[in-house]
Every structure is written in structure tokens, then in C-alpha cells.
Design goal:
The structure is a single chain. The protein is mostly beta strands. Helix content is 6%, strand content 22%. It has one domain. The protein has one helix at 18-21, and strands spanning 38-45, 52-58. It starts with 17 loop residues before the first helix and ends in an 11-residue tail after the last strand. The model is unreliable at 1-12 (pLDDT under 50).
Length: 69
């Protein structure tokens, strides 16, 4: 397994670290925050078969914004 992200625009992003994939660090690029993390969706890594999904977390700065209806 590699840690290359797949999906729109992610090909240029740095691969996530093990701590980011396991929800122990913020998924934000170059972010080092490890406390106060909240669910932030999923990141997909390439495998020899189908992409593998990881439930990731983010700090308040990088957390997804709620959609406006």
C-alpha cells in the first residue's frame, strides 16, 4: 500500500502521514496539531486493488465548514 491520495486535486498534495491516517494528527497540510481534533471526512489511499478509505480528523482551523442551505 502507498500513502498517495487519490481524488480531485489530491495528486499534488503531500501524502498523509500515518498519524494523519489514523486520526492522531490534523489532516491539514503541514499542520502539527494533535489535540481538539474532530471528524473531517475521508482520505483515500491507493492499493493494488480498490482505494482504501481512512476516516480522518482535523483541528478547528482545518475542519470542514458546514454547508449553507
Amino acid at each position: 500500500m502507498t500513502t498517495d491520495q487519490v481524488g480531485a486535486g489530491s495528486e499534488t498534495a503531500a501524502p498523509p502521514t500515518d498519524d494523519q491516517l489514523h486520526g492522531k494528527a490534523c489532516i491539514g497540510a503541514d499542520c502539527t496539531v494533535t489535540a481538539g481534533l474532530t471528524p473531517a471526512g475521508h482520505v483515500y489511499t491507493k492499493t493494488s486493488g480498490a482505494p482504501l478509505g481512512w476516516a480522518v480528523k482535523a483541528c478547528p482551523t482545518h475542519a470542514p465548514k458546514e454547508s449553507i442551505r
